[in-house]
Amino acid sequence: MTSQKQIAECIDDKAANWAARLDAGQLDAEEDAAFRAWVGSDTRCFGALARAQAVLVGSGAAVTLADAIAARRQLVQPNRRWVLGGAAAGCLAAVGLAITMTGRSGARSLHFSSEIGELRHIPLVDGSRLTLNTDTALDVDYTENRRTIRLLRGEAFFEVAKDEARPFIVEGPKAQVRTVGTTYSVRLTEPEEMKVLVATGRVAIETAGRAGDAFAALTRFWRADPVDGDAVLVDAGQEARIRPGGSGGNGTLVTVTALAKDGTARALLWRDGKLYFEGETLAGAVAEFARYSYRRIVVRDGALANARISGLFAADDPEGFARAVALSLGARADTTGGTITLDK
Question: Is 3.55.50.30 the CATH classification of the domain at 273-343?
């Protein structure tokens, strides 16, 4: 008779294979169907897949599948933190599946990143999910009483699994965003500035590094009329801008605005590889496109740069965007060189 331990080990083996195949590239339709069927076949599969994407910090040498699985099993022991092995690459060879282990010496947290133009979906062991936008990096550090994300650069969307005993905290340079279960995005716009867009639920914006992890502290922040020392509350359909300011420029300013109808959905279209502009200057739209591609767009006419544009565009198609803009504004688009130029 098959023991529960043997079943768990089999799930871990399959999770390691799926993690490597997912990292190696997009699945075709048949593989995707098989992957979804496997994830839905047992409630343990989802957590096993998340564990399979984490490996202990190593020297950068490849290890065998058996060694990698053994290392992952050690990661789930109580009071242990995880370290992501970067974008661990997997390949099928005569000697079997190998996984490359990478990491920063001495680091004790999971590290995730995305390249320019890449979207990356990350499942976490508690059931939360992260979507990394282009050129994004963050660290994940889970303990018994808090779930902490340190956003290092870029933008990410957070689907937070509810856990009242462990608040979910995204730390930025001047403030942190705390919740126990909701969906929202956080974007670093400048070295010490960030934006928080709430899709569902409510988040509390606090001074960075605020002490206290208990849920009782969180509920104290969630007051209808927060006073000095309490958090700034941001509800679904609102966006908060956080920047340096206040007394002597050493404080933190938080401005909360309500988005127009469908504004939240439009602002989050980047998750589908789309960019939506409504009355944006061409210069502003070009700057946004620069986040998603190594190929740059240059506007050579000042009046053209200040022209307002609206529309929905593919984030990975700066050439198509330039041609559409040129057609609508009566401009010229030169796409023959490495740089795309727009001029009157």
Answer: yes
